[in-house]
Amino acid sequence: MHKGELTRALTGLRDQLGSFEFVLDVPGVEEARAARLDIKAQLDDYVLPRIQAAGAPMLVVLGGSTGAGKSTLVNTLVGARVSATGVLRPTTSSPILVCHPDHSEWFLEGPLLPGMGRVPGPAPDAIAGDQLVIIPSEAIPPGLALLDSPDFDSVFEDHFEFATKLMAAADLWLCVTTAARYADAQVWQMLQRAKEYGATIGVVLSRVPQGAGSEVVDHFAEMLTEHGVGEARRFTIPETKIEDSRLPEEAAEDVRSWLVGVAENTEDREIVIGDTLGGVLDSLRIRVPELAKQVEVQVEKRGELAQEVEAAYGTSLAELDEATRNGSLLRGEVLARWQDFAGTGDLLRALHVQRGRPGRRSSRRRRSPARVRALKSALRAGLESLITISAEHAAEQVLVRWRAHPAGGQVLARPATGLGHASPELSRRVTRAVSSWQDHVQELIRTEGVTKRSVAKLVSFDEEALSLVLMIGLLGYGTSEVAVEGGTSAVPQRLLKALFGAESLRGMGAKARADLRSRIGMLFDEEALRYGQVLDAAGIPDETTPVQLYQATYNLEVAR
Description:
The chain is an alpha/beta fold and 560 residues long. The protein contains 19 helices and ten strands.
């Protein structure tokens, strides 16, 4: 594998993991949040530093439950009391790292575990917090570093977090447990986690009693196999006397020989480091796609909320479409203005009967009668009001639908004003849209209103007035329970058919209606955009996020 390409791929994955949050509280989200942080931390704390510092010592992290004796083992391996032991539990409150003096500066200043503070040792027993205590010792060969981590079953939550964080940064994780407590669930949880993290694992069974020890050791080996870590290197330490926080030299000899032997043999050391690094990279093939699946759940919930918006506005648009067909708009002011226009002679005067030779049309231009202007204004106002009320209802319905959705309540808990109402800009947009539609209908009359030949010889017409007649017909005049005086409910349709013929009328009507629906649809789309912005502001991942995670995993495989 090419170091530069691998570093770029890993950095890209790390950045992608930091580019989103698990915002919505859905089943499994806590585990997903923890997994995301674990992977990102392991990349930062171990993988990238290890690739960038290939010649650094092999880091052996000792982990174990309270009282397992790992600090005692560290002291024994070092040949001096460097880590606190005693009857008070837990005793290791800060992680202690022991290395050869030649490497102490690298561990103090180097890239490993960048989020932790560094303190040169020796350190007092009372030191606590996220400090990594670096202690140089000639007893440790140059290729080896030992790290005594806090107890992973500590009553202090931060100790558990440190223990798992340090485990993920280990070239080799040495689990220390006792003959009395090796069956504890947390021991196996941590071993399973170490395996998932890709660590090379060793296990030390300490305080094995004389006599019945073989049964305990055999059962422990069986459990290791059952839990999928049977390949781990195993050591036993008998129950023995501890002096000056150390075991007798011979009790830890096997562990010492193995660790020192691996560390001093460059090839063996590189094999262990390479196996762990490879194991971590292998684990990302599973861990990152599993994380992406959890992101997809967030994306799905976001999609459901977006669909609720679409459904609310879609329903309102359908209802509005019906209301502009069934004549319900033609009441009150609009109806009064139409009857005033149609019943007083203005409608007939809008059709100019020729006086003179056939084929000649009057070129005289007249200002639109007041009743034409009043009808056009009333139509515009009525349509504007209908659209605005419909948009207002759609906004209210979005909130109703979101509140009924498990994820919607969480999104609405964030500050977002005015979501239950139409936007302040809608009124201006509606006015412009309706006015433009009226102009469009008039243009249709002018450009596509081909008058029947038999009529064209006798009649010319006022385009604005006739466009209003077309609008009245489109809006369903005579199709609703509108009381029309004199039985003239079908006047618009009869007149238009007489002038243009059924086919020409159908074409203009279809185009005019489609244009109106399109303009209202665009208005509603603009209104609905607000809710997408709310989902963006909430930080819910969109469909690109899991795709990018899968792509980052693929890029890593290619770089390897």
